[in-house]
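To whoever is on call:

I kicked off a structure prediction for a single chain this morning and the downstream step that reads the tokens threw a length-mismatch warning. I double-checked the sequence; it's 153 residues and nothing unusual in it as far as I can see. Pasting both halves so you can look.
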Amino acid sequence: MRRPWRVAPIAILFLITGCQSSRVDVSRETENLLATDRAWAKLASAGQNADSVLSFWTDDARVVAPGEPTYDGKGAIRQMVMRSFATPGFHVTWTTDKAVVSRSGDLGYTYGTNEFSMADSTGKVTTMKARGITVWRKEPDGRWRCVADYSTP
């Protein structure tokens, strides 16, 4: 004869343990996302290693910036980054004001301000100040990567 009353506590223990182990520490993930964003900003600002900068985007990412076409996918974004780094006077910086991570811990967004500098047609370097929002996705390898990057003056 089976004794269901012995199985029930074990089943409840597995349910509780399973729920606790899948709980996401949103605060920790928010800090991880901010650290990722800061590391990306530092690499992009240095303007030297396109592959390192590109590693922060997902393969299906999208970039929308003022006066530019929409860049869909890493191949198009690679061309944009290479062209930008080769542009005289090009420099990009950004400061993130805030990061938000979903309760599930797999999506987030950051927003803040950015500056793009480059030489105009006369050779004079001009700077455009803008605001931006970046949508992030936590990938299977555990890294946060940008899936959508929008900037507006």
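Update from on-call: the warning came from a stale cache, not from the record. Cleared it. Sanity check on the structure: The chain has one domain: 25-152.
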